[in-house]
């Protein structure tokens, strides 16, 4: 009989704690934090998608074209050196040495 009485009193304590204003405020704060986190992740995902597709459409072709131009310049320098022509300085010189 004592164990039954202590069980009902502990149920009462748990229900009082879970129904307290502090517990309700904590649940509301957790719910708000969850909502904000979901929205933040969703908007971050959208921003990442925009950045990635913009890079693929604009940045990747630019990088490919710059690499192609560098290869063309290198080939031209090799041909000039084989033909004995004086070397042509690069169009975009690097930093001074």
Question: Overview of this structure, please?
Answer:
The protein has 2 helices and no strands. The chain is mostly helical. The protein has a domain at 17-83. It is rod-shaped. It comes from Dorcoceras hygrometricum. Residues 18-34 have a biased composition (Low complexity). Residues 1-34 are annotated as: Disordered. One of its GO terms (cellular component) is mitochondrial outer membrane.
Calculate the mean pLDDT score and round it: 82
The oligomeric state of the chains shown is single chain
Secondary-structure element sequence?
HH
What does the largest sheet look like? none
Q: How many beta-strand runs?
A: 0
Give me the secondary-structure category. Answer: mainly alpha
C-alpha geometry: rod-shaped
Strand content: under 5%
Rg is 35 Å
Poorly predicted parts: none
Q: Termini distance?
A: 93 Å
Fraction of residues in helices? over 70%
Total DSSP helices: 2
Family: Belongs to the Tom22 family.
Subcellular location: Mitochondrion outer membrane
Protein name: Mitochondrial import receptor subunit TOM9-2-like
Biased composition (Polar residues): 1-12
